[in-house]
Amino acid sequence: MPAPLTRRRFLAASLLLTGGAVSCARPTETMSDPTTTVTSTRMETAAPVTQTSARMPAPEAYAGEVPQAFGTHLPGIVDTVPTTPGARTVALTFDACSGLYDAALIQVLREHRVPATLFLAQPWIEAHPDITAELVADPLFHIENHGTRHVPLTVAGQPAYGIHGTASPAEAIAEIRGNADTLAGFGVQSRWFRAGTAHYDDVAVRIAGDAGMQIAGFSVNGDYGATSGAHAVAQQIIGAPDGAIVLAHMNHPGSGTAAGVRQALSSLSDVRFVLLDDHQHRVAPHHP
């Protein structure tokens, strides 16, 4: 296992972008400002990634481009996973934005042997390097990129829930690259990206694609920014349609997320849980 984040690596990543950590916002609605147009929801399905390494594009390639859309569901954002006839397929994903660690949630997933994709933001990783290393080492989980500052991915600073997004192509690239470098220090070659607040503009979506990243959207909001009670969380997961990507959080141990996930996994049967990794290769049929 590679050594946890070093001070040298942290400083190098920090020089790319500075800014304060923010708490998890609720990715439940599309927001826009007067200069943008929101597109209608379009569901895209995950496909295997064939690249072996990420190459960041040059910011100059996007000079002068004006975003035409901003929101959580845009063309190029993956909202569903491939399905298999005769079995309901669901991908559980949990965001760690900043702050604490919901150890009870991870324990529930381990007890039920249910795989999950964990999106870790750099502020959370810096606060929990030992836990990050432990999660990376656990084959039940797939670790991915939740951003350097945990802000919306934009090129003009569009805000979501009062949080201003990256303000230029260079900042958008740095939001991806900084935490990708941090994850690389733990031996993780990230292939998926989810922005803080799960909001993007259309130019930033293209930047992420040009960088070799798939953007992880969602089709089911599992815990509404870790504000839902256990029963509501359980019902969201139980009712998830075939091929759904469920978004919830793993940095609010006082929330209803862990208990709700336990309720859901204890009652579900014949569900195929998958990861958002390159080839969807770690799959667990679930039989409570």
From TrEMBL:
Residues 88-288 form the NodB homology domain. Pfam families: Polysacc_deac_1. Residues 1-25 form the signal peptide. It comes from the Bacteria. Residues 26-54 are annotated as: Disordered. Residues 26-43 have a biased composition (Low complexity). PANTHER family: GLYCOSYL TRANSFERASE-RELATED, SECRETED PROTEIN. This is Polysaccharide deacetylase family protein.
